[in-house]
Design brief:
The complex is a heterodimer of chains A (177) and B (102).
Chain A: H1 2-24, H2 28-49, H3 52-77, H4 83-90, H5 93-115, H6 129-136, H7 141-162, H8 166-176
Helix pairs in contact in A: 1-2, 1-5, 2-3, 2-5
Chain B: H1 5-25, H2 29-53, H3 59-89
Helix pairs in contact in B: 1-2, 2-3
The chains are: A mainly alpha (177), B mainly alpha (102).
């Protein structure tokens, strides 16, 4: 229980610090690096709640998929003449040393927590993925169907919005004139 | 030594406030989107905290799953809008691109 408490406080502090650095960073890519550390710290907080499934989802979907999408769009929008110079600027050691230190703290925390048997949950026992799956496809099956429709609508909407069409820019110029 | 519910809620509230500040202070569309994701994340912390100290069931975790799905969908749409904005205006600065036509 003591390991759990210690893990929660340090992970919470890391989450708040990384978020504060993310919103004060000038460069958007640096902000995204700190945002990623913040999400990983939140996942560790979820782990100390006794919600290991949500912690895994947080790492896989948030820190994995959504952040990579952000970075992808960021790189796409910055394709200018000085693109390679900018990329060299992004990967300088002083850029990633801060997020790296915070992530190392989180890794040490995770190792410590696993070694001391933390993650038993603050209030009750830890919830296994099987229980969540049974609930999702039992009482909450309507929600799952709605989520699938939402994702389909999102797919179609993103495709439609992201399509490159020449006439759209022409009509905008006409509107400006 | 057990952690009280308040401590979890404080972490959630601080992250929510930082997300709100990010939404208001950032000028680029991507910065605003990061703020929205931070706010959803803070809501997730609150959902799971109340779930753990609540009824003994785990409905809060189910809702957290739905919130994560919603955040993923929202990020995809918003990034598509940002790409469209960049193609139309040549910038993602929300102070410059303030026309809702085209």
């Amino acid at each position: 229980m003591l390991a759990n408490t210690f893990t929660f406080y340090v992970a919470g502090l890391v989450a708040v610090a990384a978020t504060a650095l993310a919103i004060t960073g000038r460069n958007a890519v640096h902000a995204l690096l700190y945002f990623n550390v913040s999400l990983l710290a939140t996942a560790l907080v979820f782990f100390t709640f006794g919600a290991p499934f949500i912690a895994a989802l947080e790492v896989i979907i948030y820190a994995g998929a959504i952040l990579v999408l952000f970075l992808f769009v960021m790189m796409m929008l910055n394709l200018g003449s000085q693109a390679s110079e900018r990329e060299r600027e992004w990967v300088r050691p002083r850029v990633w040393i801060g997020p790296g230190i915070l992530a190392a703290i989180l890794l040490a925390q995770l190792a410590f927590a696993l070694a001391h048997g933390a993650g038993q949950g603050a209030g009750q026992a830890s919830i296994a993925p099987k229980q969540i799956a049974l609930a999702l496809f039992g009482p909450y099956v309507v929600g799952v169907e709605l989520a699938s429709m939402l994702l389909l609508a999102g797919l179609i909407g993103a495709f439609h919005l992201g399509r490159r069409e020449a006439p759209a820019s022409k009509s905008l110029e006409k509107g400006d004139a | 030594m057990a952690i009280g519910l308040e401590h979890y809620l404080v972490v959630g509230a601080v992250l929510f406030a930082l997300g709100l500040v990010c939404c208001m202070a950032r000028r680029t569309a991507i910065g605003i989107l990061i703020g929205i994701e931070l706010i959803l994340n803070a809501a997730n912390i609150n959902l799971i905290a109340f779930d753990r100290f609540g009824t003994g069931r785990f409905d809060g975790q189910i809702f957290a799953v739905f919130v994560i799905i919603l955040a993923a969908c929202e990020a995809a749409i918003a990034l598509a809008i940002i790409i469209g904005m960049f193609m139309n205006f040549g910038t993602i600065d929300t102070d410059v691109a303030d026309k809702l036509e085209g």
